[in-house]
Design a protein that fits this description.
Layout lengths: L1 E3 L2 H13 L4 E6 L5 H13 L2 E6 L9 H6 L4 H11 L3 E3 L3 H4 L21 H4 L3 H16 L2 E6 L3 H13 L4 E6 L19 H7 L1 H14 L5 H13 L4 E10 L11 E11 L2 E11 L21
Parallel strand pairs: 1-4, 2-3, 2-5, 3-4, 5-6
Antiparallel strand pairs: 7-8, 8-9
């Protein structure tokens, strides 16, 4: 496995690989690799000839300097995980390599309107601009490739798919299933920052998702009822501070008047000082009865919690 720290070297290397007919897989990460990341790498290895894992803690997507400083970093372990999973290259650039003007922000950033204005975008202003900017740079360096992202960050996945389509980037964006702990907690690099009591409490996020899924599977059509079922579970854990627990349209991320077709249940909460997110998809039956005035409507089309 080869370790590259210079952007131009990565671009030239991948151009050479493509020139001899090899397919490129790209797995963008911020390091602190866990089994979820490993599953992305292994999926890429199974479908591509050359797999690049990027390890870069992107300062543009952190609104809180203390959160950036506390983000776990362990390049040595990341290299071991990447090699064991079959990666061909690890791209581990410095901040200055990615953003030559740092600490001044780059003059050019990427903004995906609409999808970035709700949920995580509303709670973390500027976060998705940072994600979109660094992903666009990585796609430009990698060239034609398949890029692998976890569904755990479902809104991020949607943003990346939209920017690739809107900018006509030659990248096939592949979403991969969330990998979970035995108690259902979605694997995340942030989990390492949880204390033992917080880690125990964090299992309630998946319990809440399951409560929402149970409601949808039972035929519940009103988003406010599904949202309330999830919030009730989360409200029973004193170490968890809820940001949002919502059922939305899986394509638009808007709250519909009634749940129908592909929906996504999304949760964000702070456990101690650690922000965690989770989500699952479901298929809701289409409406077979007219909506009664004043029942189940959402005139503002905003999330309910």
């Amino acid at each position: 496995m080869r370790v590259i720290s210079k952007a131009q070297e990565l671009a030239l290397t991948l151009d050479s690989e493509r020139a001899i007919g090899r397919k490129i897989g790209l797995v963008p990460t911020m390091g602190a690799l866990h089994l979820g990341h490993r599953s992305l790498i292994e999926r890429a290895v199974s479908e591509c000839d050359v797999v690049v894992v990027t390890v870069f803690v992107n300062p543009l997507q952190f609104g809180d300097a203390s959160d950036l400083a506390a983000y776990p970093r362990d390049l040595g372990t990341d290299l071991v995980v990447s090699e064991e999973a079959g990666a061909s290259i690890v791209f581990a650039p410095s901040i200055e390599e990615m953003y030559p003007s740092f600490p001044d922000p780059p003059c050019t950033t990427v903004h995906v309107a609409g999808l970035t204005d709700v949920l995580e975008g509303a709670s973390r202003p500027g976060h998705f601009d940072g994600v979109a900017t660094v992903v666009t740079k990585l796609f430009a360096l990698a060239g034609r490739c398949r890029a692998y992202f976890g569904e755990k960050d479902f809104q991020q996945l949607a943003v990346v798919r939209r920017l690739a389509a809107d900018l006509s980037l030659p990248v096939d964006v592949v979403g991969c299933p969330t990998i979970r702990e035995p108690d259902g907690l979605a694997l995340s690099s942030r989990n390492a920052r949880l204390t033992p009591s917080e880690r125990l409490a964090s299992g309630v996020l998946h319990q809440a998702i399951e409560a929402g899924l149970d409601a949808v599977r039972a035929g519940e059509r009103w988003p406010r009822i599904v949202n309330a079922a999830m919030a009730k579970i989360l409200g029973g854990e004193p170490l968890v501070a809820l940001d949002y627990a919502v059922a939305v349209d899986a394509e638009t991320f808007e709250t519909p008047h009634e749940l129908a077709g592909n929906v996504r249940l999304l949760i964000a909460a702070t456990v101690g000082e650690v922000r965690l997110i989770d989500n699952e998809g479901a298929t809701a039956p289409g409406s077979q009865e007219p909506v009664l005035a004043g029942h189940g409507t959402n005139k503002t089309n905003k999330r309910e919690s």
